[in-house]
Amino acid sequence: MKRIITLNVNGVDYTFGAEPNATLADVLREELRFTGVKKGCDDGECGACSVLLDGCKVIPSCTTLAVEVEGHKILTIEGLKKGDQLHPLQQAFVDCFAVQCGFCTPGMIMCACALLAENDDPTEAEIRDYMRGNICRCTGYGKIIQAVQEAARNIRTAKEAVENG
Amino acid sequence: MALGTRTNFEYHAPETLAGALDLLSEYREDARPIAGGTDLIPKIKSGILEFSHLVSLKNIDELKRIYISEDGELHVGCCATLRETENFPGVRETWPALAAAIHSMANTQVKNRGTLSGNICNAVPSCENGPNLLVYDASVVIKSIRGERIVPVEAFFVGILKTCLEPDELLTEIIIPRPAEGSFSIYYKYALRKALDLAMVGVAANVLLEKGVVKDAKIALGAVAIVPKRASNAEKSLIGKELTDDVILEAARIASEEDCRPITDIRATAEYRREMVRIYVRNALRAAAGREGDCK
Fold this sequence. Notes:
The structure holds 2 protein chains of 2 kinds.
Chain A: E1 3-9, E2 12-18, H1 24-31, E3 50-53, E4 57-60, E5 73-75, H2 88-95, H3 105-118, H4 124-130, H5 141-163
Parallel strand pairs in A: 1-5
Antiparallel strand pairs in A: 1-2, 3-4, 3-5
Helix pairs in contact in A: 2-5
Chain B: E1 10-12, H1 17-27, E2 31-34, H2 40-46, E3 53-56, E4 66-68, E5 74-77, H3 82-87, H4 91-94, H5 96-104, H6 108-111, H7 116-122, H8 129-135, E6 139-144, E7 147-152, H9 153-156, E8 157-159, E9 162-163, E10 170-176, E11 184-190, E12 201-210, E13 213-222, E14 229-230, H10 232-238, H11 245-258, H12 270-288
Parallel strand pairs in B: 1-3, 2-3
Antiparallel strand pairs in B: 4-5, 5-10, 6-7, 6-10, 8-9, 11-12, 12-13, 13-14
């Protein structure tokens, strides 16, 4: 039997009926049409469905039931940019050519977003370790890592500029 | 929605532990508790689990707690996530084999949902956390409406995907004692990939030396028997001895030949697993003897 639940996705409350066995990835993609959430393995092993829960906790939306995160805040790739301004991670992925087929990109960026919230200056080893659950079938890892480091630099520089007035 | 043939069920989200235990008692085999769900949901999708009632533990705050008690025990509630456990202040320093095992498994995303309790309740022979909980002498707190019992981890695992939990019972907490002052503990996992791969072999050791002599040694093995198990014969061979390389090599041989019963499967052959048990027990003991440089 469907339950009426409310999810806050990218800052907007959505109230809808969800089957108890529907995953968060299912409802984000098919009920709410946030198709930037990708389903690769649908088994928690590829990272393509990564979204952020309650700020900066990266979770696999394919192995999370929608009813389990009722009332929580979800951020998908669609909610990352501010107005027309891309998020520094999105911009860095463009600038560093860190996108090939693009299927893993939303999950990569959401996972990197969680990483930079925990560690604003990660080493390559730290990036590889934190993002090891995100698989790029095109094997474009080198440029993805460069993009994460570039974004980290840009975010730090912007922060310092604000702090120094 | 693409739910197709996936099992459906009634969803319950009780506000209290008593409420959850009532539901498990009422529906027994027809009910499943869910904490992180990262093992349960793939099973639901593949259709290998049949049940009609899902009992969510998400609203029960007491189950999310992690704390270190006054006598130094680490208490990990069954809804505390793996990352919360790994990153809990003091865990890396005091229980390094636990931190290493958690670090070695799955990925960041899964560990932000999955729990230590769920990992051991799943009870796969390769369970990364089996060996370290064994060498730390951990226990689990099991509750039902019939009461509470505390079971050593050694008695918790009873077979492949089988634990001692009765259908109406819930594992509510794992208790991990503080290792003896001056002891050394370590966990090694052998897998082909760093992410998401299951262990071909896992070895944990917790060794206490006193004036250069082994006072206590606990060694546990994963993925080489139907359950994670202690290498009791190898342990016995060490007690009262100095950790010379002869003693270390003999204990490693015993662990490999007498203390495990590996099988051949898609990940590795039985012979290969035995050999890796020998290598990792040797390396763990050399590390305990302060000779990590010899571990190549």
